[in-house]
């Protein structure tokens, strides 16, 4: 019984149960949704969002935000695809894509961590900057005719219907989760997000940690951009527009608190699956994809409101219990 | 403390709004020198249509940010109101002004809903308005589906009286949108800086708990700011629909960056408690003129315009953050005339 309680107390468990309930609910309406292939495709299709959500989760855990990741995704996708189309080797193209992530991450990290500028405002600015760079780099044209081996890569299967992409990404997420929860440096992220001043006092390099979180976020978004170009096969200058909002939404769905210090990377990836399954679920339920944004918005609002209200309740209850305990002990003192 | 006119003038010169005015002036000089067409009142005032939405909405998003919140759903509400006007008028068969009224009420309800979650459920404003952005843009699509017109085409062919909103020109020069903007600026200024309500907005932003203890219904105040920004988005949506003569569900989708840029550039603190309507209005004009002047005078492709706007935001906030940093201020005071940095630092 205790283990069950313990498992239920894990924050991302709520999201996981929600995911199962969602899938079961859809399965009841349309049982073909529950076929292994269809279920696995929900995970396979979430690969880009998983990377974005996990990347931004680093930043959100430290209590900041990064709204430029959609533009970073687009920029990295544009750079990688253009190089590949012009006949560069894969290594060069991938490296260039990842470098885009590093550089953009360093810029964001410098502004937020070192210059101490409110992160939403700063990354809004860099979002405009990076998005504009895509236009400058591509001249506003689409990048098309990517080499076939590259676009086929996204369809490569590892075992059964599981794509190699998702397997690799999943392995990375688990590794990152392990580093974040088990190693000393990994725990810095959550410590900084939970209480930045306290973290500084006990000797945690707050500025460094925030900086690193932005660089990691940039790299994850850039890799997401490379996978995006492989999956889609052509890049428009608006590629990744609005993805930052969906990635943030995925994190929130996965139980990560936007005030920082609460949540996990596994939660973020579960949230990403929920997020990217919405349109697929709509198809199975017989709705048009026009409901996509509406459902996403309702899901997001309902989950955060329920979470906030239950947290407020818990806080009030705790305070009452504390007061009651104090009154009790005082009574005991008086009687002595 | 009594101020001599000279002193208040001195203080005025040092203020951030004055700096914005200078930037605006500089833009006029540079763009005007580069291309004399820019200073042609017909062309200059004709450009107002492209920037009016940002100007109107940012005025009232300032209120939200002063309470310590943020509103990234306003762009979605613009599209939502536009499509409501179109559908109610064309497919509902109602009078166009009734359609506008319904749209404004719908937008106010959208704002109230988000504001309710922020104020009464203590959810972070960023998350609520993020969800709100999805929800209202999604609802806009669904409303568009109710129409007989294909949603990507947009509803057009509005009556002349409605189109007059964007066609009418006072004295044959000043477009009505400029008047709307001026009137709204005055209303916002009076509301924020001259009424009890405005003082409450500031107090809630500085210290919500103190505001609550001093008898202010801070939750209601916070919620009301979101309603105001929703209504302003509706006004912007109506004006834009009239100008384009097209009701579409996604016309405001790209506004978020520009709105927040205008508010922050105007001197409002993103953490709340400090802000200024005049600053926002000037900043919105600075951005608008920049977006209008660069393509006209320097042949910069409109697709690239996110770069200068982004850069402007980055430079301003970086400079202000450096000016707020005591080490930098001390260093600069050695080099620059005394008092440098005081104006920009908060």
From TrEMBL, chain A:
Transmembrane spans: 47-78, 90-111, 117-137, 158-180, 211-228, 248-275, 295-316
A single GO molecular function term of this UniProt record: transmembrane transporter activity
Membrane topology designation: Multi-pass membrane protein
Pfam families, A to Z: BPD_transp_2
Subcellular location, record wording: Cell membrane
Primary localisation category: membrane
GO cellular component: plasma membrane
Keywords assigned: Cell inner membrane, Cell membrane, Membrane, Transmembrane, Transmembrane helix, Transport
UniProt superkingdom: Bacteria
Function: Part of the ABC transporter complex LsrABCD involved in autoinducer 2 (AI-2) import. Probably responsible for the translocation of the substrate across the membrane.
Self-association state and partner proteins as the record states: The complex is composed of two ATP-binding proteins (LsrA), two transmembrane proteins (LsrC and LsrD) and a solute-binding protein (LsrB).
PANTHER family: ABC TRANSPORTER PERMEASE PROTEIN YPHD-RELATED-RELATED (PTHR32196), AUTOINDUCER 2 IMPORT SYSTEM PERMEASE PROTEIN LSRC (PTHR32196:SF29)
The protein's name: Autoinducer 2 import system permease protein LsrC
From TrEMBL, chain B:
Any one Gene Ontology molecular-function term assigned to this protein's record: transmembrane transporter activity
InterPro entries (alphabetical): ABC_transp_permease (IPR001851)
Keyword terms, alphabetized: Cell inner membrane, Cell membrane, Membrane, Transmembrane, Transmembrane helix, Transport
Transmembrane segments: 15-31, 43-66, 72-89, 96-120, 126-147, 168-192, 220-244, 251-271, 277-298, 305-323
Compartments it resides in: Cell membrane
Stretches assigned to coiled coil: none
Membrane topology note: Multi-pass membrane protein
GO cellular component, one term: plasma membrane
CDD domains associated with the record: TM_PBP1_transp_AraH_like
Main location: membrane
One Pfam family named in its UniProt record: BPD_transp_2
Domain of life (superkingdom): Bacteria
PANTHER family the UniProt entry points to: ABC TRANSPORTER PERMEASE PROTEIN YPHD-RELATED-RELATED (PTHR32196), AUTOINDUCER 2 IMPORT SYSTEM PERMEASE PROTEIN LSRD (PTHR32196:SF71)
Protein name: Autoinducer 2 import system permease protein LsrD
Top-level taxonomy: Bacteria, Bacillati, Bacillota, Clostridia, Eubacteriales
